[in-house]
Amino acid sequence: MTILISGKDFEVTEAIRLHIDKVVSRKFSKFKKQIIGVQVYLEHVARKDADSKRAKVRFKISMSGHSVVVQSTAHDLYQAIVNASERALRKVRKVKEKRIHASR
Fold it and tell me: Distances in Å between the alpha carbon of 48 and those of 2, 42, 45, 74, 85?
């Protein structure tokens, strides 16, 4: 499983890379055989100073035959990463369940 991390309008630091790697490896450890690659897009959205949703994270998970895309926004970048990974985990689990039940 390859993890590709890219940022828009800011530099992705080593701490962010380690956090994403830790979250992805821990959350998707059950699905390592089904997942080919994970692409993480980070974006800083600063429209107003009082805007509560400042960080946007998009996960694109490539599976054999499917592609799952999930997006999350939050005030904190680390919280947006965790929220997006939880959403992606639910979607990947749903795709896997559909495959198992469709073949029966």
Answer: 35, 18, 9, 14, 26
**For residue 68, what are the contacts with CB-CB under 8 A and spacing of at least 6?**
59, 60, 61, 88, 91, 92, 95
CATH 3.30.70.990 fits 2-102, yes or no: no
| Distance in angstroms (rounded) separating the CA atoms of residues 40 and 71 | 10
Among 3-12, 18-27, 95-104, the range scoring the smallest mean pLDDT is 95-104
What pLDDT does 44 receive? 85
What single DSSP character describes residue 42?
Answer: E
Residue 26 confidence (pLDDT) above 70: yes
Domain borders along the chain are 2-102
